[in-house]
Backbone:
């Protein structure tokens, strides 16, 4: 047999395992120095009470012969699809049919698996810095070309730096598949409706598809920032949207998300919706009943209130980090519509050098921007997902060390 050699091309180990190695080595050598982790984008607050109650009820149903449930419907239970349609779309004036929504185990799998329905010959464009999943899954699929000078020869990188306000510039040439993530991981920056409209127009004019990851939409605070790409006129003929309950409702360990593919999105007369339906029915067996009931509970009045409280908790942390860093002279971005704070490293310090300094001098862990792509060099990501206490403590340490 032969292996898929594309897997051998993937660049070294995943960013977060490199960080883990460094942190583990440091803690082994310095067991008396407690570390504050503001690195990985995982949540820490418990699930909303409404979700927990819904899961308990669902477990009881599974324990009773009369209400026991086997395989779920492959694209999601109707009541969850309807709750998504009504709350995430209809409430924002967007008309989405439940047959356009596919419930899944999360946005990471969907962002990664969506490549199955596209030809290897497509030209892919990604932002730089970028959520690594978009790039690595295209490498695995054989769509990347070769790794030369720090990038893949067949992937079009769109730099997002302070100079362009962290918004990618529309390519002058034709690309076919465009990954956009707003509010963005890692930069924490958002896109306005007007700016996103330019991308929708480009995609429609060039028969391209936008793969729009809005995993962080719950953190949006500004009016002119869209929660869904389908708020933009024309998006239904050129976009696929990925959503997640992970950051919205703390489901990183529960696992639930969904993908929206409008019927109007076609290539050569073929609906992409039909291809994805086929892909999911073949390779995916649905999300557990218990999980879907928990997801549904996010949309009850009480559930929405509880989820908003948790988001507000993280938003406050984001402000504490943002303001604290600003006070001691850092140039800082993000935080307003995002749980991520993106800072410029001081002087000409590289992002891994800054990582080492924070770890060794003040025992704070963040994520080096360079790990998200070459344009992330000179930047650093801190996340608001820690406890309020640890967040304040980390900011104090940074102020004491750098604030002179
Ligand atoms: N998309 C982006 C941009 C993310 O940052 C993450 C998680 O960090 C995900 C998707 C993953 O979401 P999920 O937990 O639903 O797989």
Residues:
């Amino acid at each position: 047999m032969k292996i898929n050699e594309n897997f051998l091309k993937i660049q070294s180990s995943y960013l977060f395992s490199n960080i883990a190695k460094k942190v583990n080595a440091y803690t082994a050598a310095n067991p008396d120095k407690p570390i504050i982790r503001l690195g990985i984008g995982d949540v820490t607050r418990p699930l909303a009470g409404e979700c927990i109650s819904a899961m308990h009820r669902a477990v009881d149903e599974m324990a009773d012969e009369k209400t026991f449930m086997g395989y779920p419907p492959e694209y999601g239970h109707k009541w969850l699809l309807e709750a998504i349609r009504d709350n995430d779309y209809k409430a924002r004036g967007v008309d989405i049919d439940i047959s356009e929504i596919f419930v899944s185990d999360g946005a990471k799998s969907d962002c990664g698996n969506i490549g199955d329905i596209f030809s290897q010959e497509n030209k892919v464009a990604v932002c730089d810095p970028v959520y690594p999943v978009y790039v690595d899954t295209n490498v695995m699929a054989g769509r990347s070309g070769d790794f030369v000078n720090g990038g893949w020869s067949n992937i079009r990188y769109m730099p997002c730096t302070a100079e362009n306000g962290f918004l990618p510039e529309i390519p002058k040439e034709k690309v076919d598949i465009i990954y956009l993530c707003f509010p963005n991981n890692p930069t924490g920056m958002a896109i306005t409706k007007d700016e996103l409209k330019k991308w929708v127009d480009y995609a429609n004019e060039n028969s391209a598809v936008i793969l729009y990851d809005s995993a962080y939409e719950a953190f949006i605070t500004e009016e002119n920032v869209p929660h869904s790409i389908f708020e933009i006129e024309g998006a239904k003929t050129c976009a696929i949207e990925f959503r997640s309950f992970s950051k919205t409702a703390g489901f990183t360990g529960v696992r639930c998300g969904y993908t929206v593919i409008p019927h109007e999105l076609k290539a050569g007369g073929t609906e992409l919706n039909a291809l994805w339906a086929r892909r999911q029915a073949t390779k995916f067996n649905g999300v557990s009943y218990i999980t879907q009931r928990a997801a549904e509970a996010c949309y009850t009045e009480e559930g929405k209130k509880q989820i908003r409280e948790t988001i507000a908790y993280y938003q406050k942390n984001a402000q504490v980090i943002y303001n604290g860093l600003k006070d001691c002279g850092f140039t800082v971005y993000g935080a307003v519509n995002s749980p991520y704070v993106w800072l410029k490293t001081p002087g000409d310090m590289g992002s891994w050098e800054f990582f080492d300094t924070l770890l060794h001098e003040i025992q704070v862990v963040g994520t080096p921007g360079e790990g998200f792509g070459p344009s992330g060099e000179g930047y650093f990501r801190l996340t608001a997902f820690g406890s309020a206490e640890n967040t304040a403590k980390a900011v104090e340490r940074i102020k004491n060390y750098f604030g002179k």
Q: What stands out?
A: The two ends are 62 Å apart (CA to CA). Residues 52-300 form a domain with the Aspartate Aminotransferase; domain 2 fold (CATH 3.40.640.10). Residues 326 and 332 are 6 Å apart (CA to CA).
